[in-house]
Design goal:
This protein is α/β, with parallel strands linked by helices. The chain has eight helices and eight strands. InterPro entries: ComF/GntX_DNA_util-trans, PRTase-like.
Amino acid sequence: MLDLILPKQCGGCGAVATGWCDACADDLTVTDDQPHLITPRLDPGVPVLSLGRYAGARRNAIVAVKEHGRTDLRRPLADALRAGLDHLLTWGVLAAPLTLVPAPTRRTAARRRGGDPVTRIATQAARPPHQSVATVLRFRAFTRDSVGLSSAARQRNVAGRVVLTRPVAGPVVVVDDVVTTGATVTESVRVLQTAGIDVVAVLALANA
């Protein structure tokens, strides 16, 4: 009866009667050669890797989690992130133990979303005790949303706006949902490295 009143819709394609359909699950599956090395416009000085393009089911799932409260979609995104980490460990790109540090989000956005989705996804993806999550980066108050800004404007918007709240043990992988210009992850890596923290990579669910 509840499905008749509030029918489920796939978070990836909108298909009814399921929250996440098989076709979208296939789209999000991490293939043997993923994640891929990408080159954002701003270079953080460490490898930046992405699980796929910010399009289709991947994009829709990320937007649904962030903007529409679809907490059920954290799991498939976390599974993809975990698979990507497993591949990087198998390939020798990363080595355990690892600390996953979520890229910062604006406090107002986190409050609106009932918490930071990237932190929640990273926490579900981590494999304790060899992988832990440390939420140690935050934006200073009144940092504006970067959506719609040019690459240069994004860089100016976050320059000096990321704060390290406490020390964290490395090696560290910075985790983000979407890397666009690379402005946020570049500033995040800079702040961590300035504090003497060993940052080995950035891993994103998607790149735009």
